[in-house]
Amino acid sequence: MKSIRRSLSLGLVAGLLVVALLLVQTSLWLFEAGLKRSLENDLREETEGLLIAMVKGPDGIRLDTQRLNPRYQRPFSGHYFRIELPDRTWRSRSLWDAVPAWPETSGLADDLLEGPQQQRLLAYRAVYRRDGQPIVISVAQDYTPILESFARVRLSGLGLVGVALLVFLLLQRYAMALAFRPLERARQQIAQLQQGQRQQLDNQAPMELQPLVEQINRLLTQTEESLQRSRHALGNLGHALKTPLAVLGSLVQRDELRAHPQLQASLQEQLEQIRQRVSRELTRARLAGEVLPGAHFNCAVELPHLLDTLRMVHQRNLQLRWSAPSDCRLPWDREDMLELLGNLLDNACKWARSEVVLSIKPSAEGYRLRVDDDGPGIPANERAPVLERGVRLDERAEGHGLGLGIVRDILNAWGGTLSLQDSPLGGLRVEIELPGK
Amino acid sequence: MRLLLVEDNVPLADELIASLGRQGYAVDWLADGRDADYQGSSEPYDLIILDLGLPGKPGLEVLRDWRARALPTPVLILTARGSWAERIEGLKAGADDYLTKPFHPDELLLRIQALLRRAHGLANQPLLQAGGLELDEARQCCRRNGEDIQLTAGEFRLLRYFMLHPGQLLSKSQLTEHLYDGESERDSNVIEVHVNRLRGKLGRELIETRRGQGYRFGASA
To answer: pTM score, two decimals?
Structure first.
């Protein structure tokens, strides 16, 4: 995944590296150029000194060794000369047996010469005229110590660049951590939103994030409101459809119709079909599914009320128990979850002799819900057909016959699975696997 | 048994009043939430059947206000709102039972019977039992020692009320208040006539007369 932090770091490192290398190399060049100019002066003065050392003797011009700097006498001292007259040549004693390729043009030589003992020489050539004859004086100086010190300077310069880079990176990391703190907070809040631990993002975001946070919050509010509106409208529609159905159901029982049992039966059957269909579709339309990221179901708050309601509806002195991890919050819509659990428990209550147990546990993929009862159960070979028909597990019990259909719709929306098993209580166990978010 | 039916759908209310009347219940009917709020807590009803989508004032609010005023009358919610979340809301508001529309008429009658028995601290059995008698509310007859005794509608109403209040002193005015709806004429002599007929069918000792105070059912049993 592309990370803003990494690309910023890469950009910084590349930029700093290019600038630092340019800086080091240019300053070295400039410095070397200055140094060479000053060395050129020195060398020219050396040639002038040598010129002075040329004295007129009885048999022409000769070199007065007394006037020579002693370093020209010491072998390989690093300072060398050659003086050429048209008829004779002097070379410094320090050259010993070495024959450097003296430059052919006047001034400072462009290239360094190969000197004795791996010395590299900076050479200078000057031409003078005395008594009508040309005197060519070339001097050279060992340049290796300067080269070595340049190499040292370059190395330590690079070292400094490296340290500076490191320091910059650390500083930048720190600055980014500071700058990214609101982003990181928003990221955490969105994660909490996904897990149903909050309904809105914090509005205290920095200016740059404010529009994003506000937009998300507005979307969340709008989604929730439209869900509520549609649920309300469905409630009204249900009211409008179900009350006339109740009237019809009552009318069908009238004595006038009792005289025509066939007519009454077929009317009742049709009414029952409408009733089932209306209830199923209205309940299905109420499902929120996955639209609300902030939705959650707080077990400890909701389950006691749900079980109380089931006790009220069933009035059979049933033992209803539940167990869930402490502070259990399931990341699904409250009404959907109540509908799922209500229908499963309602089924179990219809069949149970005395006991129904709901357990909620975290599993590898998400959550595992189990509803156990101590009723007659369903033989293993009848379970598959029951699940295939999918809907009518509860048809055998009197009362409302749409429980498992809704359960199936909810599980489809959530990507969950349902299986029927033997319960340790002796009856049926319905096990639901819900994938986490 | 006198019931209050709060239902804004007239055809359904008509059907329910007729079917409840056939079962020997005296029924008062209201269609507005505000009227129900007042009358439910001012008249001595034995049970209230409450719709939730009411004009004037929502049923749940009416129920909450009744309970806030400590009205003990059992309330059965009869509504099209069938989701579990809505049922829980009903229970939290103080409902004693919850039946969703459309319903089977017999289911409503069974639930009313069961709720009345529970409200009077009687066990939920198929037949109402008190004072050595069993009352078959569906057939409106009673049985003693395996022998059926036929009852008229008036006798049945009275006997059911007695059997739901065994051993309690019931004044004539209390009996008329609970056996007749708010619109029928109340004549305490009718009560006397029915009591005497019941004594004739079931034995004198079953209903004791306390002079100036009223009647007591099943005191000897």
So the answer is: 0.70
